[in-house]
Design goal:
Helix content is 32%, strand content 34%. It is an alpha+beta fold. A seven-stranded mixed sheet has the order 1-2-3-4-5-7-6. It is globular, with a radius of gyration of 15 Å.
Amino acid sequence: MIKKLNQSNKEIAHQIFTIFQNSYNIEAELIGTLNFPPLMRSTKDIENSDTLFYGFSEKGGLAAIIEVDIADRHLEINSLTVDPRYFRKGIANKLITYILEIFDYSKASVETAVVNAPAINLYKKHGFVEYKRWTPSHGIEKVAMLID
C-alpha cells in the first residue's frame, strides 16, 4: 500500500531516516565512496523538508520511500529508497508508477550516480532519458534524466 507520509511527525521522520540510512549505505558501497551526501541527512532535516514523501508499506511496516517536489508542473524525484529487506520485489517500480500517475506534470526529472545501473535502468523503463552528466564537488559522477 502506498500513502503520503507526514514527515513533520518525529516518529515518521525517524522511520524515513532509518530507511534512507539502510538503503543509502548499500548505494554508497555500490558507488565505492565513503563521502555520500544522502547519508549526511538528519532526522531533523527530513522533518523540516518542504518536499513530499510517499511510503510503500508491506506487512505493517514501511518498506520504501519516494520523495518528490513539484513546482510549475515540473515533477522532481529527489530520492527513492527501498529498505534492503525488500530489495528485488518491484517496490521501487510501483512507487515510480504511482508518482507518475498521481501528479499532473509537463516534465519529470531525476538524478543518480552514473554507476548506479539498477536505478538508471529502472528510470529508463519509465521513459526517462539521460540529458546531462557532471561531477559535483563531492566527486561522485552523476547523471540527470528527464521525461519531457
